[in-house]
Amino acid sequence: MTPPRLARALLRALLPPAERRVIIGDLDEEFHRDVVPARGMRTARLWYWRQVLSSAPYALHLRLLPALAHIPWDVRYALRLWRRQPAFALAAISTQAVGIAVATAVMAVAYAVLLQPLPYANADRLMQINESAEQPGLLSYQDFVDLRRANRSFEIVAGFSGGSRTLMLPGAAPERVPSIEVSDGLFELLGVQPLAGRTVSEADVKRGAPLVLLISHPAWMRRFGGDPAVVGRTIQLGAQPHTVIGILPKDFEFPLRGLADLWVPMRPSPQQEERGYWHWMDVLGRRKAGVSEAQASSDLGAVAQTFAARDAKWHADTLLRARPLRDVIVGGVRPTIRALVAAVALVVLATCATIAGLLLSRASSRTRELSVRAAIGAGRARLVAQLLVENVLLSLAGGAAGIIAGNWLVTSFVAAMPAARRAALPHADDIGVGGAVAVAAFAVSLGTGLLFGVIPAWRASRSDAGSALKAVRATQGKGESRARFALVGLQVAVALVLLSASALLATSMYRLLHVGPGFDPEGVVTMRVTLPASYRDAQAIDAFHGRLRQRFEAIPGVAAVAAISQAPLTGRGDTGTPNVVERPLPPGEKRPEVALRTVSANYFSAMRIPVVGGRAFADADTADTPKVVVINQWLAEHVLPGGDPIGQHVTFEFAPGRFQIVGIVGNEQFDDIDQPTLPVVYFPARQDELSAATLMVRTAQPASLPAAARAALAEIDPTIPLFAVRTIEQITDSSAAVFMRRTATWLFGIFAVAAVLLAAMGLYGVLAQAVAERTREIGVRVALGASRGNIFRLVLHRGLAAAGAGLMLGVVSTLVVSRLLVSLLFGVRPADPLIISAAATLLAAIAVLACVVPAVRALRIDPASAVRMD
């Protein structure tokens, strides 16, 4: 009949020694005298556990009270140590600051992009609805109308489409500005209230209603000086006057389409309303309260069946899908941020290992001090508490410096982001070190200080009174030495993981940037022109492009000018399904969609795209001649294999008549640079209206071309603006494929350099201290006849053994961690043995250099002086 042993042990551990015997004795006496006879053994044991647990807070208070009373003294003592040893304090604080700075910066981005709610009402119920086609996210107008009418899961369904409009303000040159066409209900779906005026109503989208628009807050401030009287004012968009009905709030953002100055009601053309195969609308829906994602998906399946019943030709196999809006917006950047979080965790780990090594080294020099304190009555717990207070102060100081540096890093990074990339991220302008991120950073700093400071503090507190009465040697024990070399091995492992990841990303980036786009990009400047409605027919449009080409070619340095409906490397664009008259498919089968481009006759020669079969377009290919097309090599080999397609005819649902294939050209990259090659069909501009075109100008003077081009265009028609002026290099650099990979490559490179420096300094510092601590031993060895080679190998062996163990651990860790980089790699395997071997070889060479210097110092030890050392 004894009390529960575990409960008694718990209470003994919590109580201070002075109170332990009295309190436990009283509890045991009551247990045997009163509880067991009255309640029985099983109930008595439960009673004992309840008494222990209820007494635990008081016992813990008694235990901590003396330690808390000493904290002010320990803080003052730690600050005095900082003044006496500023080099150590500076090294520890700066090392901690580096780790916390990168952690803070990445946490700020991750919190804003991945964790912070989208800035919309009921954001968790917002979904994007798309058809499972080659262009997910796009619906036809007929589909949109049917979806609104037939669905039972969404309380609001709204659509939008991006574009641009020509803004003509009094006293200013015409300017093409980004705009978004929206259906009624979009702002209600997002829960957005205008700063002034109203939003788009159902009456605004009806054909024949007055033309109206809303202005974004940045455009309102930039173009109208924040004048509230702009609401109700008439603004000219092209040839049509529009009335301003509202101003959007300052905090409104729309990452799905990025930057937009103007928001206009959606009014589809008759062709857009009639053509069920024309997919051009993005559609959002807000689920009804209580409707799950699974229920919404099931409901969309039923709606898709109504599409098939209405239009079996184009919707026989249509499927509707819905994705949470957050996944749509941040899904592309989530893998990158996760990889960066993993890299930061490794940097923090390397930082902590470095600080732990510093603390262990410092502890060996304080043996006398701690032994004296133990001799005059300080218990081990008291010494550990003092050392932990010192470590926590270092961590908090480093954390504060790191948070300040991290805030600077993240604000600098956001400011350096291209405007289009920044607008595509939620909360991008608000990314910074807020309260939640600062608290998390301080928690990481404090946690790492405690976690990696406990072992050095515990080892340093093992001094006793007896050692204080002796001539204490400064030599460190084997346990401390093994711990320090183990930490160095951990640093080497982390450095290898980050160095290998950085090398993989750098190789991937190199290969991505050296992918041939299928044309010669040297000196090519792109610029957009959109003709107003006054150019009503193909003849007027063709005449305009003829005059523009002639005027541009007269600009000094211009070698060629061509036109295309959508520039390369800017997206899939318009698509269609070709039917080859001479090669009909079996019933039920259809060819894949192909990208469609309209180009000027000289486009292929101006872009230096080879003609591999047949001929290119000629100026003689006009509206009065048979319709012709040119296809790319990929389409000829993969979509139309089994014979020469030259001379065959294709038809399209959207265009009457047949088009003869007259040529095959090399593969030109139209989608993002990391995407597969698209099959492409080219149409001649003189047989197709090219009212909106991208001019491809090859020039030897790209810097001076925009001003000269605008002046030349103004001479032809001053009402037409030139916009979206970019070089091919700028298009590539601002693409999502290059931006995300380049950002990750730079950040991982910085992390890798920091980790390698920490590993090299840690290895050097541990060996240097080991040599200093073993000076007398080395002197004795030399006096007894040890050769210089023996001494050199003795010192070098310990460092290389730690580095070798770290390299082996690093290789294994790299094979695991590199899988996080799959979405960022291009043309490189995650576990590429050549790249990982090269990184390991480089790090091994750095480790050897870090070990050689202490080994050379060991050779300079004078035996006589070393033996006389105390």
Describe this structure in words.
By secondary structure, this protein is of the alpha+beta class. It has four domains: 5-68, no CATH class; 133-318, no CATH class; 334-514 and 737-867, no CATH class; 533-718, no CATH class. Strands 14, 15, 16, 17, 18, 19, 20 and 21 form an eight-stranded mixed β-sheet that branches. A six-stranded mixed beta barrel has the order 3-4-9-6-8-7. Helix 4 packs antiparallel against helix 16 and helix 12 packs parallel to helix 16 (435-460). The chain starts with a helix and ends with a helix.
Topology:
Blueprint: H1 5-14, H2 17-39, H3 41-84, H4 86-115, E1 126-131, E2 138-139, H5 141-150, E3 154-168, E4 175-182, H6 186-190, E5 196-197, E6 212-215, H7 217-224, E7 234-237, E8 240-247, E9 262-265, H8 270-274, E10 281-287, H9 293-310, H10 312-315, E11 320-324, H11 325-330, H12 334-364, H13 367-375, H14 380-416, H15 419-423, H16 435-460, H17 465-468, H18 478-513, E12 524-530, H19 538-553, E13 558-564, E14 575-576, E15 579-580, E16 594-599, H20 603-606, E17 611-614, E18 628-632, H21 633-639, E19 649-652, E20 655-665, E21 680-684, E22 692-699, H22 705-716, E23 723-727, H23 728-734, H24 736-773, H25 775-783, H26 788-817, H27 833-859, H28 863-867
Short description:
The chain is an alpha+beta fold.
**Distance between the ends:** 59 Å
The main β sheet shows up as: 8 strands, mixed
Q: How many distinct helices?
A: 28
Strand content: 15-25%
Return residue spans where pLDDT drops below 50 for at least 5 consecutive residues.
465-477
- Which oligomeric state applies? single chain
- The tally of structural domains comes to 4
Radius of gyration: 37 Å
Structural class: alpha+beta
> How many β-strand runs?
23
How helical, in percent, are the residues?
40-55%
Question: What's the mean pLDDT score?
Answer: 84
- Taken from the alpha-carbon principal axes, the silhouette is globular
